[in-house]
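question for whoever is on the cluster today: can someone run the full assembly for these? two chains, 334 residues total. i dont have access anymore since they changed the login thing
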Amino acid sequence: MISVLRLNHRKRDKRITTHCALTARAFGASGMIFTGEADPHIIESVEKVTEKWGGNFKIKHSKNWKKEIKNKKLKVHLTFYGERLEDKIKELKGKNLQVIIGGEKVPREVYEKADYNISIGSQPHSEVAALAVFLYEYNNHKMPENFKNWKIKITPSKKSKKIKTKQ
Amino acid sequence: MISVLRLNHRKRDKRITTHCALTARAFGASGMIFTGEADPHIIESVEKVTEKWGGNFKIKHSKNWKKEIKNKKLKVHLTFYGERLEDKIKELKGKNLQVIIGGEKVPREVYEKADYNISIGSQPHSEVAALAVFLYEYNNHKMPENFKNWKIKITPSKKSKKIKTKQ
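^ ran it for u. tokens below:
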């Protein structure tokens, strides 16, 4: 079971934070808390996706990241300064994790509080990409397919758009 | 060898398109063309990353996506309507590919012109996540580590920031 903590959201990053949440959901995390600036539109748009596409993904905002650090879980901070994913993923699979992603300017304390600082490559790229690849590895390269209580669902297809809907 | 074509960029997606480019670079693509609205800031910020962190990643804008579809390459369009990555990745590994990502409202023609329409899960998430996981699979779950002509480089570390610089 994985929950995600997205640090230091800023309004200008609205779409990135939304992509983080949708990626967390699609790759099997149970929910995401974001800190920094509040933004009800993000919550609303992610909740709409869950309502339509199913599953139990929870999203909320918190003012205080320190309160949200879950000491009962193994805390995995994704950062390009961290140890290589491939060297550490075996220790993490199957465990109850809190995955922490920045936000710019992650406080020093996060590196210290984290049980693991993990890099998906040591190059600058994207918290969305890092989160996706981390969850993909955690799930043994499988994408979750069963989202309960869906109203809309896609069947994979070579050229067309195969969409099922129900009320 | 993989090049990326990002369709229909809009100014409000500045950070998403930048993350697409940085992800393409960090995960080993040779370059990215984006269509839709022009945005010199994106080009500038990605070129600065390459100048500092190394490698030969090329980024440019094009007004006309149809001109940019490379018929000499296998065209792989990433879309949540497509066939499952796990069912098709073996056919694609080691080949010269153009990976196409939306943008909203991808024209019907893209689905038709693509040699493959591939989904990374059939749930809505993020073109950044889809691109990352596709390239990660293509590279056999390895992250490229050798970016030539770097001025700054990180050594993976458990708790600290290990940075090397050279002029």
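summary bc i know u wont read the tokens: Chain B touches chain A through 56 residues (CB under 8 Å). Chain B has one domain: 2-165.
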